[in-house]
């Protein structure tokens, strides 16, 4: 589906808000959205929520023949899938520019920085090595897919356990998880991507753009770092022109953010490890929040209830006396709906009349006529605003 | 690669250059008569050919026309004989698509596309011999081709790849240095304003060294821009001499 | 048949005079910091400094500064004669490719109906547009106006414009065509030439009868005799030779070049040495004429 263009007023609004250092969701310029990391039942399955952006990563492994140029190193393969589930603008099957960009970015960030020890993945040098495959699926696109994907990928790699292998001469035995505990991968460091979006030709900068902000941005600078303050990858995209000072500033902000996120990921991994050890149920189904509407259950909010009566009397005295008569509202021809005008006055009068009739036991015709003429008079007082060329509308009154 | 010293004690690199030296740049503009603009550039042993067509009416998908500026369409390809081993490279594989995207991004920043609404500018670059710094050489060649085509640009776009070895930034990496696992940074710069059109870095580098590396890249780019300036002025002189009555 | 082959030779460096007669600038060069000047094509303002955006020579007309690039697509002005090829037939108009940055437009109301009628275009005319001009037809036209985005609006409302029949098209750079009063010339050697401002040059044998009642849509498909064909081929090669040496093209220069080339065979004209010789002779003759 083709992307619906952003309306001009929305774009102007966003840009103006950014100029005043305000964001749609109330964040500060350097704030990330809430990051939630959850794990699935299997080892190597990880879900990352970055605000509403939802990404899933799954790590799998198999034994293959190594590459000829590197006979004693394992292979790590990354793939990001952009399915139409994430956003209607993603097309199934076609390798769009965004998909190429994300894939290459993730590869550069994780592979070139050598975060995984590939030599430990070797089983028999030159013949058999482990091939680790990281598949990242984007489940919901609300901006900043790169950051979410990188967090998901590295967390999944840290969470993953591969089957244990032992070699006896020429025989290789791969133990299933029941026979021997699977062993984790040796991850040297955890590179995390931080995205900076630039607006108004580089004057304004935001961290972690949401989808709307991404649409109005001029360009993006992505810095991948680990907590040891080593930069793993920098990539600028979009047709913006940067200055060296901007890049240096971004790298400093990135180092702060990366250490925060790494801590969070570490905690999540730790929690999961404890939960599995304790034998608790863990997995995707467990971690989904129960999104039921619980009507009777409400959290008790503390309300100050001291000196309420005094406060109430105070307020009533200070308030103005409400007008007793409601000014007659201008009403279009009855039967025509209208928006924006207060018709309460007239309805109340009608209701009062009806109630009045009901109160009086099965009234005589005179009284009915009286009420009818009263209504007609009301109608005469009413100013008609309708341009409608329809025929006169006949209103069926409930009492007739 | 074990055993190869990328930077010797006396400060010489594998090909005898000093750390801040850029390889020899030779270029020629207007090599093809048919294209609107063309250029051939050699930087050391890396050779690239760039051709520009446009601005012209949007061909192909009419839906991609932009009402207020021109669309820049870049295509990067490597000849099969460009590397040490002959390798057939299918068009549209990820690496060349990524390079094409980077080139497009670089030139969108520099070319004044607002002057040509609803048109298309095509930039085709081919690497004839690859010896490191592919992206930089492409950008330099394409800049000359765009100038040859008479398409307005804010400034030259010069690019250079720098690496970091033994606490020293090395300017303009060759293939041996690039594959030696050196952290490399590619930078495309508009020299006069010092604005960075594209910044790309792979491999690990400590944050403290980033500034020095970017600085070294900018100096190298400015050096390249001087050479390109010479080439353009020389070409201008020659052609205007010919058109003189 | 023997094929002509030659090894690559080092180009002779063009002798560059030590002083720069012309003001040549490259993109990014600051032309002036004086704010009193108006900026024209090829320049932009960067922090109150007038900077060049193309590589070319600076032209100063009173307060207007513009930079003319060496090579550019055709930028049409009202009154230019162009030769173009029809690329599309749309509703009530044709799209014509004229080597400019957008395809030019030829409106149905801007052509002469066959037979020279003067009437309002009807719906039937719209449906029979393809009978007048199809995709691939070559036409000569004049620029009527320029649209806001730079596309040209052409018209063929004169008997000398219209569909072109048998002949040879030579595609050159627009900067080589000299602006003159008339672009249609009947050369004494027996061919006619149309020097389109957009760089497209059309050579055709001079028609015997100059009256064209058909109004520009009738193309004669009678066979052209050999002598005419030779003349046209020679002219085409001469044009290519002049273009390679960046000589300004107009009827006199083309004629002189033709005369200088008579001593060589037609196909030899394309050899580099012969080209140089011919062009030198032409330039000499031109200087004599002016001097």
TrEMBL record, chain A:
A cellular component term, taken from the record's GO annotations: cytoplasmic exosome (RNase complex)
Cited Pfam families: RNase_PH, RNase_PH_C
Residue ranges of every copy of the Exoribonuclease phosphorolytic domain listed in the record: 32-163, 189-255
Keywords: Cytoplasm, Exosome, Nucleus, RNA-binding, rRNA processing
Region of interest (Disordered), ranges: 322-400
GO molecular function, a single term: mRNA 3'-UTR AU-rich region binding
InterPro entries noted in UniProt: ExoRNase_PH_dom1, ExoRNase_PH_dom2, ExoRNase_PH_dom2_sf, Exosome_comp_Rrp42_subfam, PNPase/RNase_PH_dom_sf, Ribosomal_Su5_D2-typ_SF, Rrp45
Biased composition annotated in UniProt, kind: Acidic residues: 346-368, 383-393
Protein name: Exosome complex component RRP45
Organism: Cynoglossus semilaevis (Tongue sole)
Phylogenetic placement of the source organism: Eukaryota, Metazoa, Chordata, Craniata, Vertebrata
TrEMBL record, chain B:
Protein name: Exosome complex component RRP41
Signal keyword on record: no
Biological processes per GO annotation: nuclear mRNA surveillance; poly(A)-dependent snoRNA 3'-end processing; rRNA catabolic process; rRNA processing; U4 snRNA 3'-end processing
Key words of the record: Acetylation, Cytoplasm, Exosome, Nucleus, RNA-binding, rRNA processing
Subunit structure: Component of the RNA exosome core complex (Exo-9), composed of EXOSC1, EXOSC2, EXOSC3, EXOSC4, EXOSC5, EXOSC6, EXOSC7, EXOSC8 and EXOSC9; within the complex interacts with EXOSC2, EXOSC7 and EXOSC9. The catalytically inactive RNA exosome core complex (Exo-9) associates with the catalytic subunit EXOSC10/RRP6. Exo-9 may associate with DIS3 to form the nucleolar exosome complex, or DIS3L to form the cytoplasmic exosome complex.
Cross-referenced SUPFAM superfamilies: Ribonuclease PH domain 2-like, Ribosomal protein S5 domain 2-like
Top-level taxon of the source organism: Eukaryota
GO CC annotations, alphabetized: cytoplasmic exosome (RNase complex); nuclear exosome (RNase complex); nucleolus; nucleoplasm
InterPro entries per record: ExoRNase_PH_dom1 (IPR001247), ExoRNase_PH_dom2 (IPR015847), ExoRNase_PH_dom2_sf (IPR036345), PNPase/RNase_PH_dom_sf (IPR027408), Ribosomal_Su5_D2-typ_SF (IPR020568), RNase_PH (IPR050080)
Main location, first listed in the record: cytoplasm
GO molecular function terms noted in the UniProt entry: RNA binding
Pfam families documented for this protein: RNase_PH (PF01138), RNase_PH_C (PF03725)
Sequence intervals crossing the membrane: none
Assigned protein family: Belongs to the RNase PH family.
Boundaries of every Exoribonuclease phosphorolytic domain copy: 21-152, 155-218
Places the protein is found: Cytoplasm; Nucleus, Nucleolus; Nucleus, Nucleoplasm
UniProtKB/TrEMBL annotation, chain C:
GO molecular function: RNA binding
Entry superkingdom: Eukaryota
Domain Exosome complex component N-terminal: 24-61
CDD domains for the chain: KH-I_Rrp4_eukar, S1_Rrp4
Location in the cell: Cytoplasm; Nucleus, Nucleolus
Subunit structure and binding partners: Component of the RNA exosome core complex (Exo-9), composed of EXOSC1, EXOSC2, EXOSC3, EXOSC4, EXOSC5, EXOSC6, EXOSC7, EXOSC8 and EXOSC9; within the complex interacts with EXOSC4 and EXOSC7. The catalytically inactive RNA exosome core complex (Exo-9) associates with the catalytic subunit EXOSC10/RRP6. Exo-9 may associate with DIS3 to form the nucleolar exosome complex, or DIS3L to form the cytoplasmic exosome complex. Exo-9 is formed by a hexameric base ring consisting of the heterodimers EXOSC4-EXOSC9, EXOSC5-EXOSC8 and EXOSC6-EXOSC7, and a cap ring consisting of EXOSC1, EXOSC2 and EXOSC3.
Family indicated by similarity: Belongs to the RRP4 family.
GO biological process, one term: exonucleolytic trimming to generate mature 3'-end of 5.8S rRNA from tricistronic rRNA transcript (SSU-rRNA, 5.8S rRNA, LSU-rRNA)
Domain RRP4 S1 residues, every copy: 73-145
Record keyword Nucleus present: yes
Entry keywords, A to Z: Cytoplasm, Exosome, Nucleus, Phosphoprotein, RNA-binding, rRNA processing
Domain K Homology: 167-207
Gene3D superfamilies linked to this entry: 2.40.50.100, Nucleic acid-binding proteins
One of the record's GO cellular component terms: cytoplasmic exosome (RNase complex)
Keyword flag Repressor: no
Lineage: Eukaryota, Metazoa, Chordata, Craniata, Vertebrata
Name this polypeptide is given: Exosome complex component RRP4
Classification via InterPro entries: Exosome_cplx_N_dom, Exosome_RNA_bind1/RRP40/RRP4, KH_dom_type_1, KH_dom_type_1_sf, NA-bd_OB-fold, S1_RRP4
